[in-house]
Design goal:
The complex is a heterodimer of chains A (493) and B (118). Chain A is mainly alpha-helical and 493 residues long. Chain A has helices at residues 6-24, 27-55, 77-104, 110-129, 133-152, 158-188, 193-199, 207-223, 232-239, 242-268, 270-276, 279-299, 304-325, 328-359, 371-374, 376-390, 396-410, 414-440, 454-472, 475-489; strands at residues 58-61, 72-75. In chain A, 78% of the residues lie in helices and 2% in strands. The longest helix of chain A is centred in the last third of the chain and has 32 residues, at 328-359. The relative contact order of chain A is 0.10. Chain B is mostly helical. Chain B is built from four helices and no strands. In chain B, α2 (30-52) packs antiparallel against α3 (73-103). The mean pLDDT of chain B is 87.
């Protein structure tokens, strides 16, 4: 009974839990409850991935209405993997939230923060699991609205303007997606993605379908912060509470990348997107620009959270670059980097959360002076995460860059491979600035010299551990990413 | 009737969409931005609703004398989208209230200047 309804439970459990955590009122209680719920969703998504890997695609008719009339939840390897990424990050970040939120969010707002967190989790899981284009829009708005709330709860008043700016950009993006879905519905009379992919080939040549494709691509690109539509991201990540930053940086953009994959490969098909439309060329150019501009701007940032946010823009570039190849290896690299980047950026932002916990407010490069001595464990995590961002062997960052370079060479595009490597060198520069300040400079006058509490360090190190473990034992992640890439490319043989 | 005039509903949609979009981009006043965003979203609602109309179709209420019905599904979809729009507007306005409390202004330039001078 329960195993048959897992796809629904994946979304319904956090959705129902969200108002309950508001009713609990006591911050500590709300935190424990949210943690419990996020661990349950983690188990649900693990079980879903296991079922998909052993038994193939799961199609679940919501409320018993048969697809394509009812809303279908369709779980294949791709979204089972994305569900796992979101729920792992959701659970691990929530572990650290107890102390961190207590320090950064006013006490009366804390239950609200947990409600927003659960709603955001619901939305992201819903986007990943649904097989219905309109349902996807609704979940997208659930996750976006709750993330605006989380961002606006930051300590700095600039978090308010950051949230407002994100709200404007995000709503425009979501409305573009809504227009695209509407145009597709106009032409096909269906909203079910699987059904859409069956009906679209016959009318591919019409201008309505072309504009639907354009609206969807641009709308999704805003949500995934593809250069030059990334302007909302740096401020939002910089001024949000540490927990919200870690959660959103590791999940929200990843889910948006998944939406792009789903629409481009499943709904429209590779031939339409990459042969009839110049999507591959456009994405490749923007991805390379994102890698270089993101990394270069990151070098010059004084605010470390902002530095990491720009680094995220660059890392999104790597994912999109992999996707733009439209080959199995390229897609494998892209999907792999979804997981790998979630691990390392989650870890890095949690480590920054530890530093914010001790120092408070905005963490500047100046504040890093001497941290190697005063907060050795936190700084070790920053260094390990940084090495992964650069792509040093034995970290996950290396594995995804390896596949990315492999994919470029497979096509004979060696300049692209060179550019990926040069992009990594830029990452060396900004990570080195942190290392230099932390280990080679004397501590600041009057800096409190204490390590962060264990409840913040353990989640950070869990993610660092994962990013090292999956950098050495690559079998599991690579094989899942490969199966996912193959299933995306072979939807329409 | 696929002449320019025959597609007038789409012209209305495009006009509203551009007006709303322009207001969002061009105005520095946050409340005006939200108004523009609303106009922009409304144009999409009209797009959906006008798509559901079937020529000579009656309201979708089962009746023996009627054979052609309009499609009710877009209306239902847009009801959801309207709710989403209301939530977005409410949240945006709440944010503006908080921004005004801490900056004393809702003009983007003003706020930008205050942050710069820090």
């Amino acid at each position: 009974m329960i195993t048959a309804n897992l796809p629904a439970l994946q979304v319904v459990i956090p959705l129902l839990a969200a108002p309950l955590s508001l009713v609990l009122r006591r911050p500590g209680l709300a935190w424990l409850f949210t943690l419990l719920i996020s661990i349950i969703t983690l188990f649900v998504s693990l079980e879903l991935l296991r079922q998909v890997l052993s038994g193939g695609v799961i199609s679940y008719a919501m409320g018993g209405w048969e697809p394509p009339w009812g809303i279908e939840y369709r779980v294949d390897t791709v979204n089972a993997f994305v569900l796992l990424i979101v729920s792992i990050i959701g659970a691990v970040v929530m572990l650290s939230a107890g102390e961190s939120v207590a320090r950064e969010v006013p006490e009366d707002k804390q239950p609200l923060f947990y409600t927003a967190y659960l709603l955001c989790l619901t939305g992201l899981l819903g986007i990943a699991i649904t097989g219905d284009a309109f349902n996807l829009f609704v979940f997208l708005e659930i996750s976006s609205l709750s993330s605006y709330i989380m961002i606006s709860l930051g300590q700095d008043r600039r978090s308010l303007t950051a949230a407002f700016q994100y709200l404007i950009m995000g709503t425009i993006g979501a409305t573009f997606i809504l227009i695209g879905v509407g145009l597709l519905y106009m032409m096909t009379g269906t909203l079910n993605m699987h059904d859409l992919s069956q009906r679209l080939p016959a009318i591919m040549e019409t201008r309505t379908v072309h504009s639907a494709f354009a609206f969807l691509t641009v709308g999704i690109s805003i949500k995934l912060a593809l250069f030059p539509l990334h302007l909302w991201l740096p401020n939002a990540y910089t001024y949000a509470p540490s927990v919200a930053t870690a959660f959103l940086a590791a999940t929200a953009t990843k889910v948006a990348v998944y939406v792009l994959l789903r629409f481009v490969f499943t709904v429209f098909g590779v031939e339409f997107a990459f042969e009839m439309m110049p999507l591959g060329e456009i994405l490749m150019l923007l991805a390379l620009l994102a890698i270089f501009s993101g990394s270069t701007v990151a070098i010059f940032q004084d605010n470390i959270k902002r530095m990491m946010a720009y680094s995220s823009v660059a890392q999104i570039g790597y994912m999109i670059l992999g996707i733009s190849f439209a080959t199995v290896t390229g897609l494998t690299a892209g999907i792999l980097h979804l997981f790998n980047h979630a691990m390392m950026k989650g870890a890095l932002f949690l480590a920054l959360g530890c530093i914010v916990y001790r120092i408070g407010g905005n963490v500047r490069l100046d504040d890093f002076r001497g941290l190697g001595k005063t907060m050795p464990w936190t700084m070790a995590a920053v260094v390990a995460g940084g090495l992964s961002l650069i792509g040093v062997p034995l970290t996950v960052g290396f594995v995804s860059k390896w596949y990315l370079v492999l994919a470029a060479l497979e096509q004979g595009w060696w300049p692209i491979a060179v550019m990926v490597l040069v992009g990594s060198l830029l990452a060396v520069v900004y990570i080195w600035k942190l290392v230099e300040a932390a280990y080679f400079q004397a501590p600041k006058e009057g800096a409190s010299g204490a390590e962060a509490p264990l409840s913040l360090l353990i989640p950070t190190w869990l993610l660092i551990g994962a990013s090292v473990y999956f950098g050495i034992d690559t079998d599991l992640t690579v094989s899942v990413a490969q199966i996912a890439a193959q299933s995306l490319l072979e939807v329409r043989p | 009737m696929t002449t320019v005039l025959g597609l007038y509903n789409y012209w209305v949609v495009i006009f509203l969409m551009m007006v709303g979009f322009y207001i969002v981009i061009a105005h520095g006043n946050m409340v005006k931005k939200v108004v523009g965003l609303n106009i922009f979203q409304t144009s999409v609602f009209i797009l959906y609703i006008s798509v559901g109309k079937v020529r000579d179709g009656a309201a979708p209420i089962l009746d023996d004398t009627v054979t052609v019905y309009s499609n009710p599904l877009p209306h239902v979809l847009i009801l959801t989208a309207i709710v989403v729009g209301v939530a977005t507007t409410a949240l945006a306005l709440a944010l503006i209230v908080r921004i005004r409390e801490s900056y004393g202004s809702i003009e983007e330039e003003d706020i930008h200047r205050q942050d710069e001078s820090l």
